[in-house]
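Subject: procollagen-proline 3-dioxygenase structure
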Amino acid sequence: MRERIWAPLPLPLLLPWLLLPPPLWGGPPDSRRPEREPEPGPLQPFDLLYASGVAAYYGGDYELAVRDLEAALRSHRRLREICARCARHCTARRPLAPPGAGPGAELPFFRALLERARCYRSCQSQRLGGPASRHRASEDVRSDFQRRVPYNYLQRAYIKLNQLDKAVEAAHTFFMANPEHMEMQQNIENYRTMAGVEALQLVDREAKPHLESYSAGVKHYEADDFELAIKYFEQALREYFNEDKECRALCEGPQRFEEYEFLGYKAGLYEAIADHYMQVLVCQHECVRELATRPGRLSPIENFLPLHYDYLQFAYYRVGEYVKALECAKAYLLLHPDDEDVLDNVDFYESLLDDGTDPASVEAREDLAMFVKRHKLESELIRSGAEGLGFSYTEPNYWARYGGRQDENRVPSGVNVEGAEVHGLSMGKKSSPKIDRDLKEGGPLLYENITFVYNSEQLNGTQRVLLDNVLSEEQCRELHSVASSIMLVGDGYRGKTSPHTPNEKFEGATVLKALKFGYEGRVPLKSARLFYDISEKARKIVESYFMLNSTLYFSYTHMVCRTALSGQQDRRNDLSHPIHADNCLLDPEANECWKEPPAYTFRDYSALLYMNDDFEGGEFIFTEMDAKTVTASIKPKCGRMISFSSGGENPHGVKAVTKGQRCAVALWFTLDPLYRELERIQADEVIAILDQEQQGKHELNINPKDEL
């Protein structure tokens, strides 16, 4: 990931800025809403409109904010359309001529190249109403539009203007690309309450057409409405291939050469062309992944494109169109030639053909055959280019299948079709997969005085460890003192004082908040820093003990206290925190855990570091996936830490706190740097600045107290 380069600011100005709340992020536009007619005159740059809209929002001019933000979204969408249209137009009108032979043999090729470049520039300038360079926005602005940040401003502005329906649309559009954004989820719930209805019409203004049609096809398929399923899957494929053309066209835009300093880049003509073309080619090759990825997700829908043909082969069979069923089955085999179920289906479909139809004459669908041919040629060219130009490239498995196909997805040959009970694919929730990394434990604990208590086997589970003396008694007291000063009721729980049970009060605080209070002198800075330091200590221990071969990052850091409410503990039979898993949705009835939003699917490891034991109840428990059978119970005490992998292999909860207050530092970690905790990154910067200040004082031999 490219690092931002900031101009240095004076420390007194920079530190308060770092202590501000983190920015809200938001995903790629592809609206299905009817577009307004383009405004007359040149297309206004979307980054300037965006800046104007944000400035108007913070200035309290919400009508202007809405006008400019909506205009920015239209401009951004229109810019993408123009770039894609010009790319298609010029590719068709200005084909690249192959080089000939003899002197000047390459000139026809370069002449065609120059003609296409001139076509691009002319087309874009004409449609944009000016040079394309006016629309080259900064990386930060483009990232905001990719993450749908403008919709966050819009939903707030529309609420200020009492336009609830438009606020709901904007909020939902933002939330679809940011499913982990709990504040937005709460906003949507509040809007429902304001509207006086449970279910509002939720519209994703940036919905991708091919994904919407695919979901509709799955829905009709599972309802055994195969005619409509065919209609939507075929529509999804048409939209997919159109989206693929646009994605590939947009890849032909400017590329970033991160390995090179531009001014020092001394490559020759052919090296420069090859460098740029390889980046374009890899980008185009990755469109497969891009089109299979839902907004706000990092991982694509597994086996996405082949699944269309898998669904269709069975749906066509169910409506009696055996030739089309055979075409789709053979298409699926282009990407999964060893799939035994579909191979059996091919044999079965061939047995159903009319006597006048030669099975060998029925070929795989042409749309996928052409797609796969190009995809394989690109793969070969990228591998060859990587070897020749000296960069590493590993071809991803774009067609990975989740688990094995179920037997009921196979059409058994030789059965009586009329009497056969054949079930289709199930594309409901996916159960949480097994951990896809090597499971190791028993690595060094790194610090003296830490006591190993139990491992996974002794805790009757997988990837679990219990340690003592991670904190000293003095550190526990100091942290508890900080907690009493900085905690806010409902912090980390969307403002809910009793999010899990009405019988307890929940309070919380983040590392950045602690440092902010320390900087402002509201708590000792040394104590605020202790919160930061012990959480980093815990991270290092977890990374080392579980012998992870990649860096473990903070996903969320939260100091939390839960207090038993007096007068509400008699005959209490609930839990302080219900049984759950940290990165998937636990389904005790099905004994499964579904790894999908709103679960925090990016979390990989969790840890709880306890600060006290002067309370009653509050034991931490592991259970089986039935959420009933307890496999281990742990009594918190000062310095004790329990850590475990975050998936469905480790359902857990907290027994009721019936007296006193139970405090702990809750830590969630991820192996994916894209999901690093934003507040933690800011906290790291604050610590670096404080260290720099302290170093400067030592160099000048100044006692900090002398400044007071």
